[in-house]
Automatic annotation (TrEMBL), chains A, B:
DNA-binding region, residue intervals: 40-59
Keyword entries, A-Z: DNA-binding, Transcription, Transcription regulation
Alphabetical list of Pfam families matching this protein: TetR_C_13_2, TetR_N
Protein name: TetR/AcrR family transcriptional regulator
SUPFAM superfamilies (alphabetical): Homeodomain-like (SSF46689), Tetracyclin repressor-like, C-terminal domain (SSF48498)
Gene3D superfamilies registered for this protein in UniProt: Tetracycline Repressor, domain 2
Domain HTH tetR-type: 17-77
GO molecular function, one term: DNA binding
InterPro entries: Homeodomain-like_sf, HTH_TetR, Tet_transcr_reg_TetR-rel_C_sf, YxaF_TetR_C
Species: Actinospica durhamensis
Length: 209, 209
């Protein structure tokens, strides 16, 4: 995120912070709806209700703004799940997380896919810096899942490698989200997560409920 | 695929077929490397070594070409795996398919992701016709996996629903491919498919080897 860091002043006033946040939120929404390439800085400017010079005050270019959006979406995705992450150290907690992920997609009418994954898929071959930022976001997500599985493992309840299982659960989530977006139906996400969690459950010797 | 059907003449000469195929192959490669939005018709024209009027002879617009690319990539993906599909009615055959998918990504240095999935992710929110074409491609892929699992189920070897398991395996593959593309490492794909196939294997009562 070097270009963002370069651009972002060391200290922003409270008002400056608010303006910057509004620009990032508007860009995130537009990139989510239309894709990174299709969302122009002019669209972002209009949606955020700021002037062009205000955008350039906070972001050197679209790349800097994209990196801020990836950070923003990572935070949003993790914050949304935060209340559920604490309970991922039991099969019951994992199932509750699965239900919440499915319900969230249902409310969105299966639109949009994963806010991080869809950016990642779009930029992976053309923008190494953005690809790495997405990879970093996924690592944090994987880490949150891993924490629950690791706790079960340390308590002697879970056989199998918690690192591998966390990555497998994240992959099932991502594949399920993408197919759910393409099919406009929650079934792919439900089935993908159920299979992954059934696999985890089959490796659990004792599950405290 | 209405616009393509409209545009494509009822009969093409052999030379016309070859020219059309060359255009589609060039477009598929460019869209794979750069994304759908970034690959312009002018880029395709240059890469295929044809004139602008030749492109418009075969395709009314970029949308028609995109639909032909989705069809082309679906065929390519299924053809690549065809020799392995016949053996998906055993755990050994499923593992061989997994190994081939991983090896293929290794040879590509984990670049590109899924040729269908990456288009799907890019167009899902902005192009319903293309989204449905991608959904149709995924259904064929899911069907090929389902055929093997269904055969096991009919022989009484596989417990569990072969429809759900086929979709879960495809989701694990897609999520694994995307994370492998983002991380430039085969481990996500390996781990995702291993978890999905371990789950299938746990439901197999007899596996003829």
């Amino acid at each position: 995120m070097s270009s963002e860091t370069r651009q972002q002043p060391a200290r922003l006033t409270r008002k400056g912070q608010a303006t910057r946040s509004r620009i990032v939120a508007a860009a995130a929404q537009l990139m989510y709806e239309r894709g990174v390439t299709e969302a122009t800085l002019e669209d972002v400017r209009a949606a955020a209700g700021v002037s062009g010079s205000q955008i350039y005050h906070y972001f050197a270019d679209k790349q800097a703004l994209l990196l801020a959006v990836i950070e923003h979406q990572t935070e949003a995705v993790l914050e949304l799940q935060a209340p559920l992450f604490d309970r991922l150290d039991s099969v019951r907690g994992l199932r509750a997380w699965r239900d919440a992920m499915v319900e969230f997609q249902r409310r969105l009418q299966c639109r949009g896919g994963c806010p991080i994954g869809s950016i990642g898929s779009e930029v992976a071959e053309t923008n190494p810096e953005a690809r790495l930022a997405v990879a970093s976001g996924f690592l944090r997500w994987e880490g949150a899942i891993r924490a629950g599985l690791g706790a079960m493992h340390e308590r002697g309840e879970l056989e199998g490698d918690p690192d591998d299982l966390a990555l497998a659960v994240l992959a099932a989530l991502q594949g399920g989200l993408m197919l759910t977006q393409i099919q406009r139906a929650v079934r792919p996400l439900e089935v993908a997560l159920d299979a992954a969690l059934d696999h985890v459950a089959s490796l659990v010797r004792v599950d405290p409920v």
